[in-house]
Design brief:
alpha/beta, Rossmann fold, 8-stranded mixed beta sheet, 11 helices, globular
């Protein structure tokens, strides 16, 4: 009996307690550095690079409600009634990187605002969910003030999908349509899939991006462009968000595409067809 008690004490103090202490340290580090693990801001490009990435784009500046000045690139509409697409890019990217995806629409006369976030592209501030929400509000206000007679469509890529869904859920009457490229249902669910060994994420997560709880209020036409082999957020996450979205909606799954390659499989043509049908 004494031997068993001593053995249990040895296991508890020499094995279990050190493991628990180590795990708690890991949780503390994850909690403290979680935004560094979530956001990957990219530096600004040169004017020459910008001209190549988005021909015809002009540099604009907006200011958020918390006094962050943001610079972004905007291709103005060619006519007084052409629609404008407000574009929110994904992580580890810049708005300019999506310029190629909208060349056809820009040539057709559409305006394209390639929104840039705080902390990205040389902008001040640090990214966070509430911060990107304020950034989105500033770009919408810019379009309403400068182009009040133009309809606005929103486009969200991956992380930008969470930004776009949040914006439309708060301003449902300001938009004509929404396109979501490889979106996720929530950062919480994605993190559960990617980091199953990290417990208490629901409590710890500062920026959950709960798109699945917000999309139900968005009743404009919606197009989902999903990657069948999405290695980042997973196809199921996008399908969950689509299932939660109200009509009208449509989805296209590019079976052999990965998270960043749907445009290699014809996504641009599908987007153009969808937007021109409205």
């Amino acid at each position: 009996m004494y031997f068993h008690t001593a053995l249990l004490k040895f296991i508890a103090f020499k094995i279990i307690l050190p493991f628990v202490a180590f795990y708690l340290i890991i949780l503390g580090l994850v909690f403290y550095y979680q935004r560094a693990l979530l956001y990957f801001p990219q530096p600004a490009v040169t004017p020459e690079q910008a001209a190549t990435l988005a021909p015809g784009a002009e540099l604009i500046e907006v200011e958020t409600k918390d006094q962050i000045k943001l610079k972004a690139y905007f291709i103005p509409p060619k006519t007084k009634d052409a629609p404008i697409i407000l574009v929110f890019h994904g992580n580890a990217a810049l708005g300019l990187y999506l310029g190629e995806n909208f060349r056809t629409l820009a040539q057709k006369g559409y305006g394209v605002l390639l929104a840039e976030y705080r902390g990205y592209g040389g902008n001040g501030g640090s990214p966070s969910e509430i911060g990107l929400s304020r950034d989105a509000d500033a770009y919408l206000e810019y379009l309403k003030n400068h182009y009040p007679n133009h309809s606005i469509m929103a486009y969200g890529q991956s992380l930008g999908g969470g930004v776009a869904v949040d914006l439309l859920s708060r301003h449902p009457d300001s938009f004509k349509a929404l396109v979501l490229e490889v979106p996720f249902d929530s950062v919480l669910n994605v993190s559960n899939r990617v980091y199953p060994y990290i417990l208490f994420k629901k409590i710890m997560l500062k920026d959950p991006y709960l798109s699945i709880e917000k999309i139900g209020s968005i009743t404009v036409p919606k197009l989902f462009l999903l990657a069948g082999e999405d290695e980042v957020v997973g196809l199921e996450s996008g399908l969950n968000l689509f299932a939660a979205a109200p009509e009208p909606k449509a989805k296209i799954v590019f079976d052999h595409a990965q998270h960043g390659t749907v445009y290699l499989f014809g996504a641009e043509a599908e987007m153009v067809k969808f937007l021109e049908s409205l």
